[in-house]
Amino acid sequence: MSIRKGGEWGSPGPLAPSGLVVATDAEARAELEQARGAGRQPRELGLLGGDLCHTVGGRGDAARLAGPDAVRLPVDAARVVLDGGEPRWFVAHLVARRRGWRGPFAVIMNADRLGEWHLGPRAHPGDGLLDATEGELGLRQRVEARRRSRTADHLPHPRLRTRRSARHELRFTRPVGVWLDGERVGRARHIEVTCEPDALLAVV
Fold this sequence. Notes:
mainly beta
């Protein structure tokens, strides 16, 4: 069940013996995609690194995952369809852009950060929503936005549109590169993204 404002989230408990320890968002996404393809439930994920891990307060402590201080969290994921193709998923973020972030771009965040950039300062991976930012910036504005995004001070911005929703649809006049959890997965002009609440059980 998605968290409600002011509500409790997660419960104490260690990673199940059948769980999978992952060190990156891409490893977590791989387990989710394999599970969806096989028609099974994803294994519990012990998070040791990645942007999702940092967002939910993970410490990168493998021993903690099996101990009494571990916390079990139901987390959302996102289903992605590129130009009407087969579905893909991400756990932390989607980036759609051209080289050097020139021209129109979009980021959709389930985690609150992408590396050192806080591109989803309001994002919460347990609220059933995804945070999208779209826009187009000139060179000087891109340099300034990168600097300010380290402290989430890049928003609001007159040339950036933000929206929080369970579903997002992105359209570009020309194909742009698409990255899911830091891995490039192709190019697309039409991108459909849908939040899947409580898609994973994460342990930190």
